[in-house]
Amino acid sequence: MEVNVLSTEPESGVPGDEFKEKFKKNHDITFYRRQRDKAVSQYFASLETLLLTDRGASLELCERDSQNRLSLQIRATQNGTVRVSIDELQPVKQRYHVSDVLVGEMRYEPLRVHWKREDCVCLTWGLGQYQVLVSFLPFKLEISCDGEEIVTLNPENKLYFETLQGPTRSSSNSCQGDENQCGLWKETFRQFEDIKANGPSSVGMDLSLHGFNHTYGLPEHADTLVLKDTSVSEAYRLYNLDVFGYDINSRLGLYGSVPVLIAHKPERTAGVFWLNASETLVDVKYNSEPNENEDEPPGKKSKIAPQTDVRWISESGTIDCFILLGPTAAQVFSQYAQLTGYQALPPLFSLGYHQCRWNYEDEADVKAVDAGFDSHSIPYDVIWLDIEHTNGKRYFTWDSKLFPNPAELQRHLQKKNRKLVVISDPHIKIDPDWSFYCEAKDGGHFVKNREGAVYEGTCWPGESNYLDFSSSKTRSWYARQFSLSKYEGSTESLFVWNDMNEPSVFNGPEQTMPKDAVHFGGWEHRELHNSYGFYQHMATFEGLLTRSGGTERPFILSRSFFAGSQRLGAIWTGDNVATWEYLKISIPMLLSLSLTGIQFCGADVGGFVQDPDPELLVRWYQAGALQPFFRGHSAKVTKRREPWLFGVEVTSAIRSAVQDRYCLLPYWYTLFHQAHVSALPPIRPLWVEFPSDSSTFAVENQYMIGSALLVCPVTDPGVTEVRVLLPGSDELWYDTNTAEVHKSARTLDLPVTLNTVPVFQRGGTVVPRRAGCGSSTADLQQHPITLTVALDTKGNADGVVYLDDGHSFSYRDQKQFCLRRFSMRVGRLVSSCADDKGSFVSDDKVESVVILGLNSLKRKPKLKSGAARTPVMFEFDVKRGVLTLTGLGLEIHKDWEIII
Ligand code: NOJ
């Protein structure tokens, strides 16, 4: 018989206050209070301990009052990253170091002394462009480039390490009041007691970013793109939590965390990566308001040089801080990707549309929905099954009444080249009659409680144990469960969704796992909380990879994430609500993720909780079609909302948004290839493309898809006009709906109907599209490619297209890819190879070319091949300045040239 669990997670309705109170506010977080209340104590660096090796410098730091000693390491890479690591010199026990996040062996440069004084030493490396100035008393690190200060570490002496104590603990000088209140060895939040086996262990440090007054990143928060000044509000909390129907404009931690902050000013972008997986709070303080300085007339510029002060405080672990020196945004993205990995190249199908619901009832329901897409000519690639598909929330099983023939269902979908995704959560139902459970228990794969017994918490199945994905042994065991022979009813076209992996524990503190639970190696959960979901994602990735013998690209969606999750698949923004505010906030949320490496991201289209009205649903589809991961999803008791249920007008608007997405997939796929090899995010805030145009710095309702398309999704009800900022100084922007051209450096009031999706192509770019879309991404190949060439003010344009088989690793292992460049210069459009290592021969043809912004046509367009020149079919719309060349039939992997 099923145990009916009374979940504390509501399944529908407006989330009420009872769900909010369960989360801590800053003042409830004792380590944060301790660090903030601590009277400044100075550390000094002891020069005589300075040691320079091939791999950097090390030095001892000494706290003046306590004589506590820390070891400091300064390391630098050739590509402009400085790593500053601080640990206790002689800890009574080892402190936790985050593993598995950094990829590969770091290559550090030897540091040398540039000059030295009694009170400081200046280190440099490589060509000597960058310097690190180490001041001894008080200890401070200043990183500069050609004499210009970029970042100072510990400018206000906020560096503070709570040293671990042995069994004969001393009372800490950080806490004047009673111990429990300071939460040194124990603390209570609501009914939950947290016993701290290692006592107080927090670490913190401040830093100043010179000349910067715009900062970004630190996901995941439902908040503005530009980080807020937290001196008068809550700090940014990085603590992975399951927050159903989360509040907007809040710094409460959501499902995942990336401890990366990006700072930008017109001449430079820089980044800070704080590698710590324990609960972390970040305070941001601008010493002039964002935008204040730029907008003032030159003569009146404020005297205070802009500066942002950032303070990082983590509950445990060590300080391991990477300063990414840019100087461009693209370099910061690449510096970060060299540390934590590049975005996995998604299989092409996963860039199509995904249809999800909690739940599709049974096999007949799935087949009917699948057929509905075909009968309404809406392309889609993947249908999803939520928790109800299982036998009593036992993952890796099927409800035999509702899904008696899962493999047949997958084959049915696969015939149309469609996939099935099923959910697999980290909690495992306690059921001694279930072999999966017994195997996990006998193998020692569960997290323990502080007493050493297996930890129990409640989630969907009732009483559950939680897999300890931090152990590589458990990850491998879990990975094996995805093999086709083990996972009954699974086929190669089944992919996976990891949910509730913060982890969500309905009866746990803040609905998550107690911090004093114990993981493999004896580490407390507090040390690695923020990486738990990342580890499940990693185990699932290993599972799907192994299932195919390492040949096929996995697809896994995870709700929780950490730095490095980009290597493993996609993430989404969790339980949003079907209101306009949540549609709006999805844009800055996804841009923040994209800036910090998590580039395959999306938000539930339509809103998960509650029912969207048809207008909101249409606008959400239009916006979602312009976001990297595109999935419609809805909660259990919401009304059905397949796109055809709201009348022809709605169906038609949704169809057209989805079809446009499919036609644009050659461009999206090319952008994901770029993300995969160079870390440029497919969606970018405007400032990334227009770094010196300060009017773009705070824009969060518009963004760029790649460097060619500017989009401004409609996110308000009943509007007939939207205001669009056209950035840049000497740019041309072509409305993709009308081909009308607009000059940059202005705002445009664009009239819109329900069917309008404001998208502009930037002059100087070439965008590849498919001429049609069919019913799934597998059909795309039947449709030739069409190139839209948008001329800049000089009549030039450039673009690339990337192609491969769309699903395997042969692009990597056998160089089976094709990268082509298209360049338009003085009336010649040239197609050439952009990477001669690629050997993929695609059947694709370029059938048509549309040239935007052509004022006149001097001669009839011709195709040049060798000495021969063949006329091509064309149409020239003089009024709109649009030249359309058709019937070209040009093989995509070959060189050709068109002369106009
Ligand atoms: C919470 C997830 O955020 C949601 O998407 C899912 O439908 C439910 N869990 C049920 O699995």
Textual characterization of the structure:
The strands form 9 sheets. Strands 5, 6, 7, 8, 9, 10, 13, 15, 18 and 19 form a 10-stranded antiparallel sheet that branches. An 8-stranded antiparallel sheet has the order 1-2-3-4-20-17-16-14. It is built from 16 helices and 51 strands. β8 (140-145) and β9 (148-153) form a beta hairpin. It has 900 residues and is α+β, with helices and mostly antiparallel strands. The structure holds 1-deoxynojirimycin (NOJ). 1-deoxynojirimycin (NOJ) is lined by residues 358, 386-387, 423, 499-500, 559, 574-575, 608, 633.
Describe the structure in brief.
By secondary structure, this protein is of the alpha+beta class.
The beta-strand count equals 51
Shape annotation: globular
**Poorly predicted spans:** 1-15
**Average pLDDT for all residues:** 94
List the helices and strands and how they pair.
Blueprint: H1 30-37, E1 43-53, E2 56-63, E3 69-76, E4 81-88, E5 112-116, E6 120-124, E7 130-135, E8 140-145, E9 148-153, E10 160-161, H2 179-182, E11 186-189, E12 192-195, E13 203-210, E14 215-217, E15 236-238, E16 260-265, E17 268-274, E18 280-286, H3 292-295, E19 307-314, E20 319-324, H4 329-340, E21 353-355, H5 363-375, E22 382-385, H6 406-415, E23 419-423, E24 427-429, H7 435-442, E25 457-459, E26 462-466, H8 472-480, E27 494-498, H9 525-528, H10 532-547, E28 556-558, E29 570-572, H11 580-595, E30 601-602, H12 614-624, E31 630-632, H13 648-663, H14 665-678, E32 683-684, H15 686-689, E33 703-705, E34 709-711, E35 721-726, E36 732-735, E37 741-743, E38 746-751, E39 759-762, E40 765-770, E41 785-790, E42 797-804, H16 810-813, E43 817-825, E44 828-833, E45 845-852, E46 862-865, E47 868-871, E48 873-877, E49 882-886, E50 890-891, E51 896-899
Parallel strand pairs: 21-22, 21-31, 22-23, 23-27, 27-28, 28-29, 29-30, 41-45
Antiparallel strand pairs: 1-2, 2-3, 3-4, 4-20, 5-6, 6-7, 7-8, 8-9, 9-13, 10-13, 11-12, 13-19, 14-16, 15-18, 16-17, 17-20, 18-19, 24-26, 25-26, 32-33, 33-34, 34-39, 35-38, 36-37, 36-39, 40-41, 42-43, 43-44, 44-51, 45-49, 45-50, 46-47, 46-51, 48-49
Helix pairs in contact: 5-6, 8-10, 12-13
The structure holds 1-deoxynojirimycin (NOJ).
